[in-house]
Amino acid sequence: MPSQTIKFPRSSPDDFISALRKRVSDYFEKQKISRTANFSMVLKSISILSLYLIPYFIVILSGISNPFTVFGLWIIMGIGSAGIGLSIMHDANHGSYSKNQNFNKFLGYLLNFIGGSAVNWKLQHNYLHHGYTNVDGMDEDINTGVVLRLSPNQKRLKVHRWQHIYGWFLYGLMTISWVTSKDYAQLKRYRDMGLLKKQNRSYRWLLNELILSKLFFYSYLLVIPLIFSGVAWWQTILFFVIMHFLQGFILTIVFQPAHVMPESSYPLPDENGNLENNWAIHQMLTTNNFSPKSRIFSWYVGGLNYQIEHHLFPNICHIHYKKISGLVRDTAKEYGIPYNVQKNFILALINHGKMLKMLGTRDTPA
Question: What domain count does the chain have?
C-alpha cells in the first residue's frame, strides 16, 4: 500500500455530484419511498436464501444416493450462495438494506455463513475498493498478486500474456481462497495497515470470531453432508469444491467487468498523494454498467449491473438503482461526463476478456 495519504479534490456546491444528489433526493421525496429495502426486496431475499438452503436440507435429509441428483443440488446451492453475496449481504454490509443498522449487521454476517468474513469484506470493499476504485496499491480488487495484471500501472510479466485464458479459471478460486487462507492473511494485513485500529476493533477478538465462523461453516456445509449425505465421501468433497468454484466464478465475473474494461481509467496520485478528479468523477471514470435492460439478470445480481449508481450511492438499496439510473445518465450527459455502459452481459464479458489480453500483452493498453 502507498505510504502517502491519497486525497481527492473537494467537490464544489454546483458540480455534478451536488446536482445529482439533489435530484436523487427529490426523487425519493416525490415518490414517498425509502432508500432502503421494500417488500419486493424482502421476497427476493427469501427466494435466494431458499435457493441455497432447500437443496442443502434435501442433500442431508432425503437420503438420495444418485450422485448426479446430489451434484445438481450442490450446483443450485452454488448459484444460491452467490446470490446471497450479490443480492443480500452486499446491501446489508453497505448499510443500505434496512434503516436498522443492527439488522444490517445481522444480514451482513450471511457472508460468514457462506464462508467469508463480513469484517474483512467491509474493509476491502467499502473502504479500499469504493474509496479508491482502480487506484493501484489501494484497490485490492485489482491487486491480486503477480498472477494477474489488472491495471496498466502494474508490472507486466511474461505469464500475463496468457491471462485472458487462465484468468477465468482463477476467478473460480476466489471463494475457495476465502474459506481456506485468504481471510486470515487479510485480517493480519488490515491490522498491520492500522485499519482495525481506525475501526476500533481488536485483532485478537476478530481472529477468534473468524476461527469460530470458519469452524461453523465447515461443520454444517462439509462435515454434516459427509455424515448424512447418501453419496460417497469423496463425492461430497468434490461437490463442495465445485460448488465453491461456481460461487467464486459467478461473483468475480459480475464484479470484474464493472471496472477492468477498455473504457475504464486507472488514475494515479501525484507525488503529494493528490488525485486529479474529485471522488464522484473518479467513480464515473473507473466504473461501467452492463445489461441495463435485463430484469431477470439484474434481479439475480443484486442490481450490480448498475455499478455506476451503486458506486455513487452505496447507501441506497439496489432495488432502486434502475429507477435512478436515468437521473444519473442524464446528469452525467449534462455535465459532459462519460457514462460507460455495455448493452448486455455477454458483451461486457467479451470486452473484459479483451482488456485482460491487452493488459497481458501491452505495457499501456490502447
Answer: 1
